[in-house]
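Sample pair:
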Amino acid sequence: MSQLDPAADAAAPAQAKRLDAFLRGVERRAWRMAELATRQREDALELVQEAMLGFASRYGAQPPEQWPPLFWRVLDSRIHDWQRRHAVRSRWSVWFARGGSDEEEAGDPLLAIADGREPGPLARLADREAGLALDAALRALPLRQRQAFLLRLWEGLDVAQTATAMRCSQGSVKTHLSRALARLRGQLEAYR
């Protein structure tokens, strides 16, 4: 507690609650974005956790309206760092084969429980095929196009916020998004 500014001390718990709510609101989408970039669930989860901790420590005191582009910028930096490290490790793994066993994860028993709201096997199959096609199409996009698409359309950031998060101009965001949409339309035409 500070003797100099008691009003700031009183506002700290409210700011912490807003920060917690913000991070809870973006965690699943952030994890999905990181998973698309890394193609590994565990690495994606670790990246999101690192991004959230870094964001909270550096930008948690900023006004809440500034949080979305700042958070996505922190996550973007973590993804870029991971990709650089992964590229170096890939080069070395060619020379040194890693040993280990392929252990399958144990199934989650809660997933075996039937859901009464289940649409049925045919609808589920069609949704699954469309979802897999979308997932493959998003993974096939170049990184900057994928970022622009996810930040603008999935996250709902405006062009200026997306440009801040991606560290590029607003014109670049529009170009990347336009190219991403054109590619996705072409690849997903069969699912319209």
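Residues 22 and 65 are 10 Å apart (CA to CA).
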